[in-house]
Structures are given as C-alpha cells and as structure tokens.
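[Automated response] Your request has been received and processed.

Submitted sequence:
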Amino acid sequence: MAHGHLIPFLALARQILQITNFTITIATTPLNTAYLRSAVASDPTLSSAASESSRLRLASLPFNSSDHDLPPSTENPESLTPNQVITLFHSATALESPSHRLVANIVAEEGRPPICIISDVFHGWATRVAENIGTVNVSFTTCGAFGTAAYMSLWQNLPHKSTDSDEFPVQGFPDSCRFHRTMLNQFVRVADGTDPWSRFFKTQLALSLGSFAWLCNTTEQTEVLGLEVLRKYTGIPVWSIGPLLPPAMLNSNSSTLTQHSGRESGISTQKCIEWLDSKPNFSVIYISFGSQNTIGSSQMMELAKGLEQSGKPFIWVIRPPVGFDPKGEFKSEWLPEGFEGRISDSKQGLLVRKWAPQLEILRHKSTAAFVSHCGWNSALEGMSQGVPIIGWPLVAEQAYNAKMMVEEMGVCVELARGLGSVVTAEEVRKVVELVTVEGGEMKRKAVEIGERMKAAVREEEGRKGSSVKAMEDFVCAILSAAGERRRAVGVVHG
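Generated structure:
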C-alpha cells in the first residue's frame, strides 16, 4: 500500500492488456483506488481499457485505518513514523477476507475462477485466497532481483545476528558477495525474529514463496547475478518482465511523455525544461529522495553547502528534514543563510517543493547525475536514461540496490548511507566533481545499461526482447495451468 508499489502494478496491467484479451481487476484500499483511478485517466492505453472495453476494473477493498490504531484516512506510508509504518504493514493482512469475497463474486459472475491472482510479494496471504478459490497466485516484486533476494534472505535468516563482524555473507549469495552492517536499516539490525517487523516479513515472504511463480521488475541482461540468486533462493519460476516504465522512457524516438504523480506540482514541466535547456549538456545534478524519504537537518545543510561549492547547476526536490512534518512548510533555517536567494540569482539551482517532473528531468540532455535514495523505481528511471547515480540509500532494500549498482553495474558511487551518516560539504563537492568531471566510464556504463533495458522490451523485425518473451511465457504458463485445473475438474465431475 505505497505509491512506489501501486504504479508498477498499473504498468504491469498495461503490458498484459497489450498482448492478451484478459480482463484485469486491480484491488486495493479506497484512497489508493482513487489515486489509481486518477493515474488511469492520464494514460491513454489504460483509460481506453477501463472506459471502452471494461477490460480494466478498479475495486475498492473495505479498510478503515482507525481500526488498526493508525491515523484516520491512512492507506500508505507517507507521513507515518517508522513504528506506524509496521502497523500499516500488519493492517494489510486484514485485506485477506474482503479480497476473498471480491474474487468469490467474480467467480459467481464469470462462472469460473480467474486465470490467476497477482499479488504484491508483501501480501503473501493472497496465496491462500488463490488456493481457496481454485486458481494460482503469482507474486510480483516491484523491486529488482538483487534487492529482493537480499531483503528476503536477511529478514528470514538474520545472518548478522550470528557474527560480531561488520561484514558477513548472506544465504543465497556467493560467499565473495559480502554485506555490511551499515546496509541494514535500524529494524533489521535489532530484529530477533519475534519483533513486529520480523513477524510480518517472515510470515508474508514465506507465504509468497508458496506461489505458482514470481514476476520481477527487471531484465535478464542487467541483473544476471540478482536473478540467479533469486531463482535459486525461491526455487520457483521467476519471470523478469521489466523495466515497467512509461513507454516513452524506453523509446528513443518518442518526444511525448505522460507522467502522473498523484501529487501537487511544485514547478511546471515547461519551466523546468526551459531551465534545463539553458544549461550545458551533462552538467546538471538532480537530487530527489523519493516520495516518502528525506534526510536529517545537518545532512541537508552540508548537502546544500557542497552543491553550492561545486559550482554545478542542480535541481533539488526538497522536503522538510527528518523529525518534521513532511507535508509542512519548508523553513529557510534548514538551509545555509541566503542559500536560496544566491542560487536563484546566479541561476545555479532550482529548489522544488512537493513534486517535480522527474522523468522529464532524467530524459534531458543536460542532466549529468542523479543523487538518489536508490529506490528501485527511481533507479530504473535513472539507468534507463543512461544517468549515473550518486547513491544515498536510506531504508528498505535501497542499500542493497546501491551495492549492486556500484559493484555489479559500475553506474553508481555512494555518497552516504542512512540517516546516521556524517556528510560534509567537501565530500559532496568531491563526489559531484568525480561523477561530472571524471565519471566518463560511469556514464558509458549507464548508457549501456539503458540500452540493454530498451532492448529487453523491444519487438521489431520478428525479434523479441527478453522481457517481451518473459511476459509471453508468463501468459502461456498461467493459461496452461488454468487449462489443467479445468480438465482436472472435468475428470472429477465426469
């Protein structure tokens, strides 16, 4: 129940609708359904499927956050404290019964079970819904293979609890691929297997491992090690059907891009593009920590000083620091005195409050690097456009994504790790210069990764990319499974 998970589900629906005649029902909570409805309206393919043919349906599952000791009208992690976030995760298990009722109604209407149920990997309880209704469950991880495998193995095995060393192996990964204690967020670090975070992830991930198969938002050519580890760890088919991005991001000849954030814009796309047009190629630093993350006040102060000292132009999507209302007013005291006025007068920087047109920024020829929290959606968006990443992972699987992009891909350099990192303005300046002045090899590798992503979803002259083939294989497999179930029922009834 987070925007970073909902949008990939819409993108997956678009992919399925384009190659099948299936009817798709996307079920989530009421406020999240409203968000999806707005996103569907802005996408020609999805809006057509929803309005003209009714092949795309949105269903609201009853949910009252107040029943789960959460603030009223809370259906995603934005604005929640970490302790409230795990409460939200646990509350999602209450969706099992209304999901079962929804699918039962579909069975009554259609006269047969759905071909399959696709569920977020964190909703492992969907495997029980599928079994009870007579169909199969396919778990969908909206993250990459490496990050998913690391996240799963760490939560299920807690390997860091068995050693005093800061570096340790993780089950499923090669022994040479060591993880560091600083990569673990505070809740994994202190987990003992019985705490609320452990109870949720151990249970839901174990249930998802009982799925018919998994879908992963990645490509065969970009995550070779990650997919190898994930497939061995799960022991079931894993189809790499990504990257699930707007088609225009993956089509070099496309000039139009439909982007919907569901949030209030802090700057018009036109103004942003005009500002970027005024800057030299490969010169602008773009900074964004995603829709739910921010950094500490001292870190924010040093980041601002380092950016100004670098002399490089930048666009910074800025939110109040940790410990303050993320939707509250941004105060000038969180930045160096006179900072905003100086960068505005010199035209060195743009500070964007609320939302920025991230996809358009990353596609622009002036963008040189992306200071990112390394959330998978943002990582895919940056890499697909050949933009090197300056990593500052904060929570979830972000540090594992950063590790892969640094060590396996060579498209990222880490500036900091977590909210506890001490960052200086000089370190910021040096990393910015490293990427923009000396980072030719990083840029080359990022462009290569972007081309591989585009090739994976390309279908031309009878040749199909790996992700196109994976999607077709997935469809064939679930249709075959549905046929076998129906033949088995026919034998029993006969």
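Summary generated for your ticket: The chain has a mean pLDDT of 92. The CA atoms of residues 2 and 79 lie 12 Å apart.
If you did not submit this request, please reply to this message.
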